[in-house]
């Protein structure tokens, strides 16, 4: 091993003698003599992914091999996104084994080559442990690893990049070029434009400078062209400007003015929805914008003073502005269009491990990676739910061991990684920035009975985050003793050690509330003590270790219920079924949370059934009001307050090398003053970055027609067209049929009348020998359903509501197509579906004739399908099988994602873009968006 820092031969030999020979690896999950692949049951599946809107096939690969416990969605996403080789060719990967082996064996080979392992046995254990954790969805590397490692492509492993631009035309044009190369590779980049002279300053030739905002137009057009030319998602980029830049007001209002343009064009009849034909005429839409504020500015804001805007080259103050007024403009713009976000410069640089090598001026597009200009970060995230035992205890010891293995693998990747530019390659190899993080925090908190916005929830999140970073730096210090500290460490040793002490001191200040967070805190305290001790002797291998990323696609790969640090989106979710079709399910964490709160099985079943019907817990039978907060989500009937999100970020920020990718959701009724307060509190609470999103603030969103009158105040008078339902009555003479039936011994008759074109228009139900009261109720019910059908309510809507309804009489029937019914209404609407709905609609509802079920078993319809999600039920046996099976209901046909399902429950549109690959509405993931259907993201991870 070569010495990276100069010194005499004698000192080098002495230091080498003091180092351990190499890394010793211990088994955590695996058993000696048994490969992880031999411990799971494998099965073959067909992956056929369609566009939800038009039914066209986007991707097809049949006969792929996955473990039986992997969900349909995870299988689809990994097969379509990460398997390499041309589809249909012999070189195409066919099995998850091939994918994992391609990556893991590359890592192990590089670890051997660069002297990480003490023996072949250590390398083998490391290989088996990584394989096990990836196979069992304990963690995942970021997407570029799966795309590139072990292939003939450049071995790019980083998803996050920070660029630099100077005040020269050559540098500005190079900025366009470098961004284009990064976008082409499917990643994202951020940079700070504050070095560029403002439009209020002179050029050396005597003319006036264009200013950074003008150059943003060219970069935005370039990003939009690259996106539309090949990618299936928007380019991911971040543009930052310092608050003391003379063009700061123009930068702040840039995107808000574009929203005014969108409104004007929309009102003139142009298609201004995201992805619409005319949206390309709008500028600055391919980037997230952020303002960098200093402590000096924030103190001026607090005190109501003025603040100086400075020339870029001389640093002299060329204009003084009212700090409160400027901050108000920032809040107003964010209120109007969610941009700009805010970054707190002095806080960021106070936690900077390498200040002697340069300040941190920018972030990646999702705001979690913050370090030197022209650098990159390799990410990986752990699935926190994999460390929660059946007894409700978080296994801190196993979590720590997993972190050690993962951070080692991440560091090895830098040894063989390729980079898009030479400056990025040079900086990353010198400072070896890593970004370990986690997903499923929201699910973990709910499953352990903690409200997301609670002291107990924040304490558990803080201790886990502290443990993760403490163990990462401890292992980094151990690696420094084996393969050397990062090249820039000697110059920055004092600063790096200071930041490590700040992390450890913050850990000591954590207040614990329950056995779980107390146990984790004990382990994290020990980890920080060891990290400081070993690091003081060896230094550290990595300039930074941890971030909290959006975990979009890889979160789906790990079958996580929640992404990154986010709470659950809603209590009901959309789920794909084996062989096609879909259903609505109540989150599997809900029964587990109820059990942790002390509820009995009968109570849990009743509460879960209520949630399945209503989508929330308000007035759920038997649920105590003090437990409502445990089930609060990002959206829905009881949504988490904006400050609840901010407080959770503040609880975890002191234990992260980087920052947190997260958007604080605010209701449409929030005011500009509310946004201003959120941005102010972010600074007071020690965050590094913050972004907000106010519901319905953007015009260019799909399904945005139902905006409030407030949003339409600027519109000129126009003709108002009022749409009302029209009743289509049946003709005097119409076709009909009568079906006799028996349910649980109760006899009855169903009369169904149709329109001449075969559409169902009326029903009458007669239950024999059931008494005049019930007969009257059934007559009234029949008339209500009939009138609804005649006013255009689809039959499939009624079927989705009444099938699986449970009450007596119930049981066996005399109908060969519906052998068992949970009630008379369950039978009636299944029968009506079989008689009047086409096959594709019935398949969505899980209703088939006896012949169709037989044909499916025989393979006539391709992959086996069923009205019960057997694969999903197998995977959730430990969670509460009886409860989950009872609340699975067919998803309405017009629903293609959890966001769209939530829209039905809320009765209003959610502000999220449609996926450009499969057409479904995406869901928030950190400060980006994620498609549940195909795994596409609007960010860089």
Helical/strand content category: alpha/beta
Tell the overall outline: globular
Estimate the strand proportion.
5-15%
**Main sheet, how many strands, which sense, barrel?**
10 strands, mixed
CATH first level of the domain at 160-357:
Alpha Beta
Based on the coordinates given, report the CATH architecture of the domain at 160-357: Alpha-Beta Barrel
- CATH fold category name of the domain at 160-357: Anaerobic Ribonucleotide-triphosphate Reductase Large Chain
SSE layout and pairing:
Blueprint: H1 9-18, E1 42-50, E2 57-67, H2 72-82, H3 96-113, H4 120-135, E3 139-141, H5 143-148, E4 160-162, H6 169-184, E5 188-192, H7 212-229, E6 237-242, H8 248-267, E7 288-293, H9 295-303, E8 306-310, E9 317-322, H10 323-337, E10 341-344, H11 345-350, E11 375-383, H12 396-416, H13 422-431, E12 434-439, H14 441-447, H15 455-483, H16 489-508, H17 515-538, H18 552-557, E13 572-576, E14 582-586, H19 589-596, H20 601-614, H21 642-652, E15 663-666, H22 672-684, E16 689-694, E17 736-743, E18 746-754, E19 760-767, H23 772-790, H24 795-802, E20 811-815, E21 818-821, H25 824-836, H26 839-845, H27 850-858, H28 870-875, H29 881-887, E22 889-890, H30 898-906, E23 923-925, E24 928-930
Protein name: Vitamin B12-dependent ribonucleotide reductase
Enzyme class: oxidoreductase
Family: Belongs to the ribonucleoside diphosphate reductase class-2 family.
